[in-house]
Amino acid sequence: MAGVQYPSGSAPADGMIQARWSSAHKQFFGTAYEAYDSQNSYSDQSPTGPISRVWFTGATGVLTEVFWPSVDTAQVIDSQFLVSDGKSFFFEERQNSQTKVEWLGKGIPAFHVTNSDPQGRFTIEKTIFADPDRDVVVQRVRITRAVPGLKFYYLHKPAVSNTPMGNSAQVSLGSKADVSGPHLRGTSVLPAGLYAWQDQQAQAVIFSAPLKQVSAGFTGVNDGYQDIHAHQGMTYSFETAPVGNVTVTAWIDLPETVGISDFDVALGFGTTTQQAGLTAQASLDSNLSALQAKYMAQWQQYQDSLFDLSGVSQDGGELFRASIATLKASEDKTHAGAFVASPTVPWGLSQIDNNAGLGMNGSRDNLIHGYHLIWPRDLYQIATSLMAVKDNASAIAALNFLKSIQETNASGRPWTYSFRTRGRDGTFPQNSWTNGEPCWGGLQLDEVSMPIVLAYRLWKQGAIQPADYWNMVQRAADFVQDFGPWSPMERWEDSFGASPSTISSEIAGLRAAAEFATQMNDWPRAQSYKAMADNWASKQNDNIETWTYTTTGSYGNGHYYTRIQGAASYSEVWNPNSNQIISLANGAGTYQEKDIIDGGFLELVRFGVRTALDPAILSTIPVYDATIRTDLPGIGPGYRRYSHDRYNYDEQNGGVQTDGMIWPIFTGERGHYDLERALESGADVRGIDAAVDPYIQTMEKMSTAEHYLPEQIWDSGARVGQTTGSATPLGWSHAEYLKLLRSRNDRTVFDRVTQAH
């Protein structure tokens, strides 16, 4: 191969820098759609088998985290083009491009990305999808050169086994008769491409275009970025970079004349580099147009099978279809029903990962996992939203996953919080990996209650048989009855005590469990669960208002539900009229508990504990609006998590901490409340629609240009309404939107839980 410089030797690691993750503001997220098999699980016997177990994301116009072989295991930080003319400029695709991202079809997560040089010298277009039958991400690339002399390089930053540390890299230009080298992953010469691995996880980047030069390096020292940035071209040709924070680079052999070049890039995975390379090459050797068509057809068939709510949207169904694709794509394909909260590391550009690289065979305790974990609370929201579009199969899979990870007394030490102690039986992990292994070690009573409610709702729809889930329900309800209503954590995971949001789900869970017990002829439990729920709801001088409704607060007329009580000590009396101090998380300061308000009280209505016209609810609404509501110009009403929240960072200003911003979830929660209030007030059809439509429209305006709903958006300034660096997309946000559409369609709150009281 004339003009080709074969790689050799190992890159020196001295000076290797720490790694950071990618932006959590995703512009695309996709995976192949797979249907369940006859067991409501994923296997190659599925109608869409063999199963493709790879997920891809993108931000700033380039490929970012790619997950394999499960949706919780990131393998890549980013993968992008670099451009130079060899003498006068250096162009980094993710930093310097003008980017446009388009879905290839409504609700079909395949994407066309156009990155343009602001000076008009070239454009890079990529069509991105997953091979529907292999563990491969495909990029079909078209480069248009408007000036001569341009050189294009491909820079790939692996993060094998969920960490960029401890990776090893090797590059190859393929067979060379007169050169041999120390191939760390076997004796045979690897096909031309870029490779990385750690333990039994490996990846390969293979190109349909020829390569002129390749190199492996350590990030920040001798990687391709440093090389090309300094020299406007590649001067390094290291064959290997063993164990560290590595980067691999390829110089693609394209004409340097004005014109257009089309080629394909395949990122494949396997247990060895050879297997990963062969898998990627198999995709390239296939008819990629046919693979793309199959990918799109399978997603289209799924979308067509669902209950169409686009007619009640305000944007023609764009966010509706994107929400379905986003949620379904968040599910693991080994452990069906394991839907992660988000395929992101919030504020990833500020997240330094210095993990030692323990890999898949070591402990995962120190891995930076972001939100690609399963929270039972988020899973409940996602599962019920899929029920809203009549995908009960996915909701059943979620329930089965929860059933499989329910803890026993053998799962660990008893839950002990001062005098409150009980074995773990019946509880669920605060969050877990897709295989059910707990990640964080907390206990949240809403996450014990919501699985009961999910089972109840599926039962009442005729989707499951109660006997199949009675053991799960009974064990969870026994725990809630014994341990509640106090919770070591409420839904924001940073305070313990008695909170309206958690207690709402506990009461609903116990009432649902009472109906299960009646069905199963367990009369003592039926009576006990119902009595406990009714006591927490309405026992004189010892109920949810006694515990969490202040009449001496600092806001409005002083009468409103607080966010939480009893957060100063495990033994504190839940007195909402006391002057007890709470120390807020994230350095937000100390305040009186009765002066911290959130929207958790609205869950009392959603879970059927209070009516929308209950006096305590009505007196809290104006206080809620006055304290943490912001009307965003041109968008609509938005809400923060709670008073004085400080959970947010500004990556444009070096990751500095800011006040907590607006969460689209709460706009949806308020829309549900206003719909229920209109119903209870006797509003006609026009009045009901008028109550909810503004919230639907607001949520749609809160979504990104690519139709993703974030965790948080900015509340003011030049970026008002734009996503912060936190998770985008967030599954819970999309779930809330889907359920709001279903509620608007039915003119009744789809999510409202009603049981015999």
Molecular structure report:
The chain is α+β, with helices and mostly antiparallel strands. It is built from 17 helices and 29 strands. The chain has three domains: 52-283, Beta-galactosidase, Chain A, domain 5 (Distorted Sandwich); 327-348 and 378-390 and 552-562 and 597-751, Glycosyltransferase (Alpha/alpha barrel); 406-550, Glycosyltransferase, CATH 1.50.10.10. The chain has a nine-stranded antiparallel β-sheet. Strands 6-5-11-17-15 form a five-stranded antiparallel β-sheet. A hairpin with a 2-residue loop joins β13 (193-198) and β14 (201-207). α6 (376-388) runs antiparallel to α7 and α10 runs antiparallel to α11.
Sheet/helix structural class: alpha+beta
N-to-C span: 80 Å
Question: Which whole number gives the mean pLDDT?
Answer: 95
Strand order of the largest sheet: 7-8-9-10-18-14-13-12-16
Number of strands: 29
- Principal-axis shape equals elongated
Computed CA radius of gyration, to the nearest angstrom: 27 Å
